[in-house]
Amino acid sequence: MMTPEMRKVIDRIKFSLFSPELVRKMSAAKITVPDTYDDDGYPIDGGLVDTRLGVVDPGLRCKTCGGRAKECPGHFGHIDLVRPIVHVEFGKHIYAILKATCPHCKKLVANKPIIAIVEKEEAEEDIKADAAPHLADVKEGAVGDVEHASAEVEAEKKQKAEKEKAEKAEKAAAAKAEKKPKEKKGGKKKCPHCQMELPEYKYLKPTAFYRDKEELLPSEIRDLLSGISDDDVRRLGFDPVYARPEWMVLGALPVPPVNVRPSITLETGERSEDDLTHKLVDIIRINQKLEANINAGAPQLIIEDLWELLQYHCTTFFDNETANIPPARHRSGRPLKTLAQRLKGKEGRFRYNLSGKRVNFSARTVISPDPMLSIAQVGIPKEIAEELTIPI
Ligand SMILES: [Zn+2]
Ligand SMILES: [Zn+2]
């Protein structure tokens, strides 16, 4: 293998979480209007295609950098969520941290990196099927504006789910009966620091948490997590400068630049928006409704329902194939393609666009980036380069 001079050796890569402050700091505009263009076809200020987030129309200039569609790289905006929501991708981590912390004095009761707990949990999960009731059943009433399949299919599904649920509950009960004697012996565990009794946590995927059977609101989870000291956060395996655990509960949602979700103009002259934009419209609408209800002093029950709906829309914005959650659909019934769906799998950005390339009248090969190549170059096998690509 040819080895050109090593220019840079990567020692390690550090991943971090965005703090709400960072999301707001890198944001070019706060997005508050659940709409895109006005009647004249011009982007609405504070709307989802606000020109501060970049432009896709060739005639317009970006208000942030002054560039036209081809020059502007696009800029992030943000939505301030009236109530925080749990980031779906971090459910497992939050669960592990909750279990590892005393809710009274916020000190650690477990002393190993969270990632170890999460990995152990995942291994156990593979063994036993999820015995928890399906969130989809529990939350059905909450996701009112998601179009459902026909009533018949739904009823059939329900019956099936109920049967499954009963079977699972039976299994779970059996498992519990086996486990119980062991747990009962010592009674409830106590915190070694403050001697208070430690609660039992339950995690109902993907985003619901229970403490001694009582559901925890995302704001309560955030308060618990932010009470953990920096030293303890380090002990859990995080670097508190780059990833405080409470940042896994979102207070501000980044809005991707316009050129990431361009609208297309149909032959009829009608504009059709990207799935991500549709989802963001839902999020802002519910966010506004929630705010209005809070300000009007609506009953807690209504507020919590709307809050859950906000959680649902944010969850499906990140991943519309989340287990136990009905996917958000178009009026046509087609599920929306949101962030995770763009990246994941054989047809996703990585495997489809980045590591496989086809060229007309030539072989197909796996291509790859390389620290030794410039950003505009890709690597292909030498044989393919020499034999199958004929310069014209
Ligand atoms: Zn720009
Ligand atoms: Zn304690």
β content, as a range?
Answer: 5-15%
Q: What is the mean pLDDT?
A: 79
Number of strands: 9
Oligomer: single chain
Radius of gyration: 25 Å
User: How many independent structural domains?
Assistant: 3
Count of helical stretches: 12
N- and C-termini, Cα separation = 28 Å
Please specify the SSE layout and strand pairing.
Layout lengths: L19 H6 L51 E10 L4 H10 L13 H14 L7 H4 L12 H36 L14 E4 L3 E4 L2 E3 L1 H9 L3 H6 L13 E7 L8 E2 L5 E2 L2 H21 L4 H19 L20 H5 L5 H6 L1 E2 L7 E2 L15 H7 L4
Antiparallel strand pairs: 1-5, 2-3, 3-4, 6-7, 8-9
Helix pairs in contact: 2-3, 8-9
This protein binds zinc ion (ZN) (2 copies).
Structure characteristics:
binds zinc ion; three-stranded antiparallel sheet; 392 residues; 9 strands; 12 helices; DNA Excision Repair, Uvrb, Chain A; two-stranded antiparallel sheet; single chain; alpha+beta
Description of the molecule:
With 392 residues, the protein is of the alpha+beta class. It folds into 3 domains: 158 residues, DNA Excision Repair, Uvrb, Chain A, CATH 4.10.860; 134 residues, no CATH class; 34 residues, no CATH class. Helices cover 36% and strands 9% of the residues. The protein contains 12 helices and 9 strands. Strands 2-3-4 form a 3-stranded antiparallel β-sheet. The protein has a two-stranded antiparallel sheet with strand order 1-5. The longest helix is centred in the middle third of the chain and has 36 residues. It starts with 19 loop residues before the first helix and ends with a helix. Bound molecules: zinc ion (ZN) (2 copies). One zinc ion binds next to loops.
